[in-house]
Amino acid sequence: MNNLVKNMVIWLVIALVLMTVFNQFSTRQTTQTPMEYSQFIDEVKQGRIAKVIIEGRTLKGTKADGRRFTTYTPSDPWMVSDLLK
Q1: Which residues touch 40 (CB under 8 Å, ≥6 apart)?
Q2: pTM for this structure?
Q3: What is the pLDDT of residues 44-76, one digit of tens each?
Q4: Do residues 54 and 83 share a domain?
Q5: Would you state the pLDDT for residue 39?
Q6: 42 and 83: one domain?
Q7: Which is it for strands 58-63 and 68-72: parallel, antiparallel or unpaired?
Q8: Same domain, 25 and 37
Q9: What's the CA gap between 72 and 32, in Å, rounded?
Q10: Is there a contact between 37 and 58 (Cβ–Cβ < 8 Å)?
């Protein structure tokens, strides 16, 4: 019976370690780095932005290298035309 308890504790510890490692890696992939709006426009003009989602005044996107970012737009009437170029 003592060996059974030891084995269960060992497997429980292994499971907790694996869940912690998985959680650390999965949260890193969803982290979005803040970016200044002027830098965002420069990156768009240089073709370094792969995807952008516009949610009100919040822009969430993915750079060409796969990194994610978030920025906030001022009232820019030319933003959509800059993105479509």
Answers
A1: 49, 59, 61, 69, 71
A2: 0.57
A3: 889 999 999 988 889 999 999 989 999 998 877
A4: yes
A5: 94
A6: yes
A7: antiparallel
A8: no
A9: 13
A10: no
Return d(Cα 48, Cα 15) in angstroms, integer. Answer: 40
Residues 72 and 37: their CA atoms lie apart, in Å, by 6
Q: How far is CA 63 from CA 21, 52, 70, 71, in A?
A: 26, 9, 11, 12
Per DSSP, the residues of the chain read -HHHHHHHHHHHHHHHHHHHHHHHHHHHHH--EE--HHHHHHHHHTT-EEEEEEETTEEEEEETTS-EEEEE--S-TTHHHHHH-
The residue to which tokens 């780095």 are assigned = 33
Same-domain pairing of 16 and 41:
no
Neighbour count for residue 49 (Cβ, 10 Å): 20
Q: Are residues 46 and 84 in the same domain?
A: yes
